[in-house]
Structure formats: C-alpha cells, structure tokens
Amino acid sequence: MNMSSTSGAIFPPKRIISVLPSATEILCLLPTGASLLVGRSHECDFPKTVADRPILTSQKTHFTTSADVDKQVSEALSQGNSLYNLEIETIKSLRPDLWLTQDICQVCAIDLQTVERVAATMHPRPTVLTLNPNSLHDVLQNVLDVGRAVGQDAAAREVYNGLLARLRAIEDWTKAHVTTRPNVAMIEWVDPIFFGGHWTPQLIELAGGYHPLNTILRDANDMPDVVAGWDQWAYGASPYTKSFRIPTETLVASRPEVLLIAPCGLDIPTTKRELRIVLARDDAWWWQLSPRPKRVMLVDGNHHFNRPGPRLVDAAEFVLAMLHRPEQLGAMRDAGVVGFEELDLDVWFDRNRFVGKSQEEIDAACKADADA
C-alpha cells in the first residue's frame, strides 16, 4: 500500500473515485463508503448499487478469443502502451479528494503512472491510495488501509476481523478433517495456459487443496499454519509467485485431479466458449491430460478469484466445499455466493464432440448451452 498526498489534502475525504474494482468493494463495505464514491472504472460492477456512478475508464483491447487477447496485450505492453483509456476531463470535473488505484498488474487495471500523472495536473490535487496485494494477508490489510484513508478505522477493523474469522474457520476445519490434499490446478487463462498466482494458490491450499504448479507445501500431506503464520510476511511479500504462462508439458506433468478454471475477467458462458475453441484443436492441452482429471469446475473468476477483494473469502469457502464439503455447494449456488458450473467429464472429454469443429459449430453449441 502506498499513499501520496499534499499538504492541502482534505481529510476525511468527501469525494472518492476508484479505478480498482476490489477497492470499490472494500469502500462499499464501510458504513458511508458507497455515498462517498463519485466515479468508478468500467470494471467496478459490485456492489450493483455503484452502477449509476460515472465511468472513468475503458479498455483499448477488444475481446475476440483468449489467444488473440493474449497477443493484443503482449504487443501493447511490449511497446510500453497502457491497455486502458482514462476519462481525464470527467475525472477533473468530479473534483475527487481521494483516488483509489493499484500498481500490481498493468493488465488488470489502469497503470499507476498514468493515474499519478493526471492527479498532478489537478487543483486541488487528490490523495492517491495505491493498493498492491500479493496475498490474502495483503487483501485483508487493504481493508484497513482503505478504512484509514477515509477516516473509518474502527468500521474497517470490524470488517477485517469478520473476514479473518472466516479464514481461520476454514483453516481450522481443514486441519481437523483433511489428511491428504487433492491435487488442484487453477487455470487463469486457457489459451495460452496461465496458472493461478498471488492469492489464488494460497486460498486453494488454505481450503485443503494442493496446488503443485505454485505451492509452499512440501507435498499433499503437508498441513502448515497458513493464517497463523501471516505475521512473518511483510505487506507485498508472499511465498507464492505471480501468474505466468506455462507450457502444456508442465500442466500435464502436475497430474491434476481437479481443474479449477477461472479465466481473468471472463464469466462462465465466455469461459465455456473459449474452452470449446481450445478443444477444437486435436493437439490441445486438454487432450494431453493423463490421467484425465476427476473433476473440472468453471467459476466466475472475474468476481470471485482474480479480483483481490473481500469476496476472496467467499472463494476460499467455495473451494473448501468443492474439495471436501460438497453438500454445501447447492446452497452456495442458490444464494449466488459464487458462480460455478461443474462439467460432465464424459461429455467434455469426448473428442468426437469437439475436435475439428468450426467456429459456426462452436457458436451453435454455445447457444445451445445458454438455452439449456
């Protein structure tokens, strides 16, 4: 976390803009937080009550397919270009006292350099609060950071304590009931393959899974204190790596029992479409998995895994239910806690249904999925 302010900064702030969805969620958990928000990014879509705020950002990339988006992003970043547009005049007209942003991922949101450059031209200049979480520990710390920045320390501490209690309950249950962890591969992008990084492998292992592609465990039987050991980590420090691209051979060699597919920024229908495009290729990584996974779960990664906000605790509770307490999944689905769909493996590992299909056939299958 980093905060830049000037001597004339207004505190507590009365007008706040956020270009970071997770920061927006945190702010809206505080008693008067939502009423202070006067502008948001195009991706700040939760809670739904913020939908009427002016939108301050837009994407320069256009989603076509996973492979093409990866190419667009790689080319833009290699040229030093931002992936987002910023509505500068709208921002200035809102006269914010506090600007919430991030500096952890140039792909996920507007870059910090652009934010600071614009803030420096504003009069009065807003305070800029930068959140850079690398772990669940950092995400909870960000609740306190936002609370402090808006003068609601006590309320933020109450939210923090509630989230921490839920994570401790997950760990306590895991240590009491789990002896061998299922092997999980968390996939953040399907074409090319990116595995889960930062907080995602941590929440999987907290919930009794083993994520060998990105792990701190010695083996599937290791049961360390995850939450209890947080005090040894400084903010921004995590024993897990960030997400990065891996070859098919690495995923295959990890022999996952469970595939948890949560592409960054995509909902479940789009994820299924992208998976069908991958499966149309005879040499796709999917067909090389041996043995095939015992379960494949698609989840709304955009809301529940990729976004470093309070709902990561919901995601951790979902993973615990998925791996060890399946009787709870139905209630989670009915309550809309986490969006997910488990694939029928006899269908999705039938080559004849997928290999060689044209884009028209894929689109027709996606429409049939939606109509079912």
Describe the structure.
The chain has 372 residues and is of the alpha/beta class. Helices cover 42% and strands 13% of the residues. The chain is built from 17 helices and twelve strands. The strands form three sheets. A five-stranded mixed beta sheet has the order 1-7-6-2-3, sandwiched between helices. It has a five-stranded mixed beta sheet with strand order 9-8-10-11-12. Helix 6 packs antiparallel against helix 7 (153-177). The radius of gyration is 21 Å and the shape is globular. The N and C termini lie far apart (45 Å). The model has no long low-confidence stretch (mean pLDDT 90).
Separation, N- and C-terminal Cα atoms: 45 Å
- How many DSSP H or I helices? 17
Number of strand segments: 12
Q: Which percent bin holds the helix content? A: 40-55%
Q: Strand fraction band?
A: 5-15%
Category from helices, strands and their pairing: alpha/beta
Inertia-based shape: globular
Mean pLDDT: 90
Q: How would you spell out the order of helices and strands? A: EEHHEEHEHEHEHHEEHHEHHEHHHEHHH
Which spans of ≥5 residues are poorly predicted at pLDDT below 50? Answer: none
